[in-house]
Each structure stands twice: as structure tokens, then as C-alpha cells.
Amino acid sequence: MNINIQKALKFHKDGNLKDAEIFYRKILKSDPKLSFIHLNLGVLLFGLGRFNDAELSMKKAIELKPDYPEAYNTLGTVLQKIKKTNEAEACVKKALKLKKDFPEAYINLSKILQETGRLEEADEIYKKAIKLNSNLSIFLKGYSRNISFMETAKYAVKKLEKLCLEYDDKNNSAIKLPLAIHYFLNGDLNNSKKLVNSYFANPSNIQKIKNKDGDNYWVWLNYLLDYHEKIEQHNETNFQSNTLYVIGDSHALSSYGIKIKKSKNNFLSKCEWIWGCKQWHLQKAHNNKFKYKFEKIISSIPLKSEILMSVGEIDCRINEGILFYNKKNPKEDINLLIEKTINGYLSYIVDTVLPYDHKITIQGIPCPNLDKSKTNELDILNLAELIKKFNKVLKTKSMSFGFDFLDLGVITDNGEGISNKIWHIDQYHISPSGIKEAWQKQF
User: With left for phi above 0 and alpha for psi between -120 and 50, is residue 133 left, alpha or beta?
Assistant: First the structure.
């Protein structure tokens, strides 16, 4: 192998992208017909965020070698990133036509289908990929999540149980995590607890959790199961109630099974979970898996239902959502980003629920509860300021849309926009007792 190619590949492998690019370009100057070097350069440029250059480089690789499945698949990844979704799908399908047993292409295609809200098609791709490939973990993870978006909790359990019987899931939580959550949502706390206990019985899993500083669904679910096990011992036997449907990300799980009073009526909360949903996902113009799930929930619950929308905290994190986007696009006014996100979110809710005449309450964002010893102080202050602004706009806009508002900021504020440490149970989530406190104080 050419010494320059060896050097370029080693630099690339070692993460020395600057020198790798120099050598790739040096090689192409002397031999511009090396299609795999064009592809490698494209991959490198994609990693650097230079997406348009990456696209050109990969297209050159395909021009030189029209039957190059790896180049088509990687180009599909780039095109998806720059929102050329139709072209991306065509490229990945071309890769699979050229190479039928191509795991990475199946992954890319299923992601494209998911992100455009075509979950039934993604479901079929996952099934096909699982049959063709021996390395199942990544496909089982994607397939399980796809089921979580496609199905209500009742039917998700049936499909996930079947997957557990068909495939060994001892070494990862690909199937077991969504299954444990859906058991919880269905009120099957015993089976949920069994899965949680089996997860914590593995020392390597406990180490993973420690490395993530407790930011883990297993920890959150374990807390909720323990909470409800204790509460069950003190439950009121004769609680006549209506149902409050709580729709949202992991924060919605806080409301599961709690009893609240609103407008002199008693409600028992039932949770409808949308994995990782942001307001940003629901305000976007095109279809996606989050909208698919939301619209399925809205159409499946009784007319004129009471709904609590628990979405928005993920939009307000240091490394996700508005702050993260603003760091990458500093010229954009953060106040306008807040307005755009909230307006789009609330407008979408109005349009979706209008035919069903549901009564909506919007849940606010709790104050940040980050570990000061592990987080830059300025980042915490910026986040606190963002959440303060976000809640103010969210409350004002919600009421102008005719929605009620459940303010979690006010019950978690220490007076400086930071958590008062009363209701948080980890960095992000509020305890069920905190949710009840908010309802009792505000309604």
C-alpha cells in the first residue's frame, strides 16, 4: 500500500483529522481516481461538520465507482443530515440494491423512515434486518424503540414480550428497558420491577449508571416503582375519579397513578409516553415519529378528555435543545428561538386536538438541578435564565391559546432560578409528590 495512504488512514483512525485531510488531498492530487479515498475524505469532512464538502466528495466517489454501496450509504447519511431526505432515502435504497446484506444501510433506512413518521415501513425494515444479521443488538434497540413509537402501551407490551422470547437480551437493555417502562404504564408494576431488578443484578450495568451520574432511565424507573410500592400501602379505597391523560417524555412518568383535583373534580393520572419528545419535534413542519405517536394518542382517548402536556424540559438543557442550537448559531436571537419553539408547539397542539374537543393543561419546566462541582457555573446560570424566560413565554402563550398552565418552575425555585432541592429526585425529574404539590397549590 502507498505510504501516503497508510499515513492518511492512520491519522484518520487516531483522530488526527487535520493531517489526515492533508494526506488524503495529497493522494488525490497525484491520483484523483481513487474512489475509496474520496469516500474516506467525505467521511472525515462529515465528522468535521463540513457537510456540503462531504457531499461533493462522496458524489465523486460514486462518479468514479457507480456500484459502490458504501459510498451510497454514507452519502445518504450526509444528505439526511442536511435535510435532503428524499435524496438520502434514494441513496440508501441504492446501497441495499447493490449489497443486500448491509447492516449499516438498513440502520440508515430505518432511521430515515422513522424520522419522517413512516413507522410501519421502518417496522418492516427492522424485521428484515434482524433476519439477515447475526449482530442483533443495534437492530433490536432500533426495533424496540420503533414499537414504542408505533403502539400504545398495551400493544407495545405484547410485541416486546414476543421479541424477548425470540431473542436473547441478556447483554443489553435493548428490549427490556422499553418493556419495563410499558409494563409500568400498564400498571403491571410487578413485572416492571422484575426487569429493573434483573438489570441492577448485573455489576457492569451499575457501573454504566455511575459513569452517567445517575442520568439513566433505569434509575428513574426504579425510583418510581419504589414510590408507588410505598404509596399503594396507604391508598384510599374509594376514590371516585375521572382520568387525566398525561402526554410527554420521561417527565410524564412522574404523573403516573397520582390523584389530583382540578376545578373541584377528582382525577387519576394515566401516562402516555413519547420517548425523548421535545417541543421542537412537535413544532417542526414535516411529519416525524413524535408527531405520529402524539396523534395516535390523541385519537385513541375519549372525546373531551382532560390532558396534561409534559413536554419541554429536554428543549431546556445545556447540551440539548435551544442553548445547544444557539451555541452553533450564535447570530440567532435566543428570545426568538424560544418564541418560535413555543408558538409552533402550541399551534400544533391546537390544530391536532381541535376535532376531539380535549381540555389542555401545559406543564412548565422545573428549575435546573445540576451538580455545581461537575458543571460550569456560567452554564448553570445561562440555563437558569433560559428556563425562566421559557416558562414566562410558555405560560403567557398557553393562556392566550385557552390552555391551563401547571407551573413547575415556581415550586422548584430557590429564589435564584436554581432548584430548591425539595422536589427533584435527580438532575432533571420531579418526584410524583412534587407534581401533586404543584396541582394542590395552583388549582
Answer: beta
